[in-house]
Amino acid sequence: MLNNKYNSIDLFAGIGGIRLGFDLAFQDEINTVFVSEMDKFAQKTYTDNFCDSFEISGDIKEIDEKNIPKFDICLAGFPCQAFSLAGQRKGFNDDYKGMSRGTLFFEVARICQHHLPKVIFCENVKGLVVHDRGNTFKIITKTLEQLGYNVYYRVLNSKDFGVPQNRERIYIVAFRKDIDSSTFKFPDPTDSSKTIKDIMEKDAVSVRYYLSTVYMETLRAHKQRHLSKGNGFGYEIRDLNGIAGAIVCGGMGRERNLIIDNRLTDFTPITHIKGEVNREGIRKMTPREWARLQGFPDTFKLNLADTHLYKQMGNSVTVPVIEAIAKNIKEVLDG
Fold first, then answer.
1. What pLDDT, in 10s, does the model give residues 223-278?
2. 269-295 burial, b if ≥16 CB within 10 A, otherwise e?
């Protein structure tokens, strides 16, 4: 500990959503000493928003754990692709001392085995719990227990924490066994009242977010094809008084969360589109609206092209959920 602060490291940092939640909960009692993130565009957004005296490290597999400064809290939103219900769900291929080689969770375990921080915090997709009939999750919890930790986990939904997004994620909190964590509990819902209206841009948005008539026809045909096969895939127009579906980084991410916004007055396209701008008011949400769906403050800088920002927000975490859990973690550590 340094100046009564808890030192933390941010692994698979993305754009810093987990860190932001912990910073809000711990205020000036937390100090980030190391950050690892491979994606160059995520690094850019991260450095735009956090002032650190050190460079962001790249590939975690190439980082020697001995070169990481001493830390008390490990933040790790390790990639979910291997475990996602939407992905191929390959998960762990082999078992090594109760841990798995070739998966990025093992890198978290390797670093924490060397430093033995007070707390390890992980976030992942809900599907992690049931992947491979529960074996994947069993290996993760067993690994943390073997390292000397008491493990707590729960699936929480973002819509219960002040943002209008239906996003279920699993949160894992592991306290080192010499710390009395018997009082730890996951937070109860704080605010389930927010709707899409609450996160919409105050002013009319650019015509480039409005879908073209030809694109709308394509989306309708695509949805019809799936409906005829009994599938529920396809675009979705959300009720402004309701909530958004989970935002995701690829595929139909944006089209699953379309809204109707009739404030546009000039329908002249500013990008190359087929057909003309639709007159029904159907548009994609903006990257700033997606940032609000994840609970990022409007002061959070979004300086990159939209393509990168949508991907980053879809990959990120819901900040108020992290903050609520972090406050409960802090109570245990301060206790």
1. 998 888 887 778 999 999 999 999 998 666 789 999 999 999 999 999 999 999 99
2. eeeebeeebbeeebbbbbbbbbbbbbb
Determine whether 80 is an active site residue. yes
CATH of domain 6-193+318-334: 3.40.50.150
- Kindly name the residue from 80, 112, 122, 249 that is annotated as catalytic: 80
Q: Pick from 120, 148, 119: which is nearest to 333 by CA?
A: 119
Residue 17: alpha-carbon gap to chain centroid: 7
Give yes or no for a contact between 44 and 90, defined as CB atoms under 8 angstroms apart. Answer: no
DSSP string, 33-56: EEEB---HHHHHHHHHH---SSPP
Find the length of the chain: 335
CA-nearest of 244, 242, 280, 276 to 261 is 280
* Joined tokens for residue 335: 């206790």
What are the sequence ranges of the domains in the chain? 6-193+318-334, 202-285
Q: Model pTM?
A: 0.92
